[in-house]
């Protein structure tokens, strides 16, 4: 997830926790996720609309457990901490950012260098 996605998720959690409707991932590249107040205490309607790809949507009434917003805030904090640690580790690497090795199309094992084959 991009940092902006995490920020928008944080805003959606705060809006829903404050009794307001919220939208997440409405940038057009993913299905839109809306959170609407249901009119019932402790419940919300979650709407997932995939207008761009399939034109379909689904609406689900969800009972929100006590402390749900605190759990989401904590989850966001953990994800942000992990992202920060990962970026710091990459920045400290003596060889710069590393990428996982791609499987060799011939041998199936991880290749030593992307784009190079072992000599027979």
TrEMBL record:
Record-linked Pfam families: DUF5959
What the entry lists under InterPro entries is as follows: DUF5959
- Annotated region (Disordered) at 81-120
In this chain, composition skew of type Basic residues spans: 81-91
The domain of life is: Bacteria
In Swiss-Prot or TrEMBL terms, this protein is called: Uncharacterized protein
Query: Which species?
Result: Streptomyces fructofermentans
């Amino acid at each position: 997830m991009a940092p902006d996605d995490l920020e928008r998720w944080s805003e959606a959690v705060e809006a829903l926790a404050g009794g307001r409707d919220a939208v997440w991932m409405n940038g057009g590249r993913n299905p839109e996720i809306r959170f609407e107040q249901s009119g019932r205490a402790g419940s919300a309607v979650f709407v997932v609309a995939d207008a761009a790809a399939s034109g379909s949507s689904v609406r689900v009434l969800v009972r929100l457990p006590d402390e749900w917003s605190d759990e989401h805030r904590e989850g966001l904090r953990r994800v942000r901490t992990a992202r920060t640690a990962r970026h710091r580790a990459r920045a400290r690497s003596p060889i710069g950012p590393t990428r996982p090795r791609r499987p060799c199309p011939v041998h199936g094992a991880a290749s030593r260098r992307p784009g190079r084959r072992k000599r027979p």
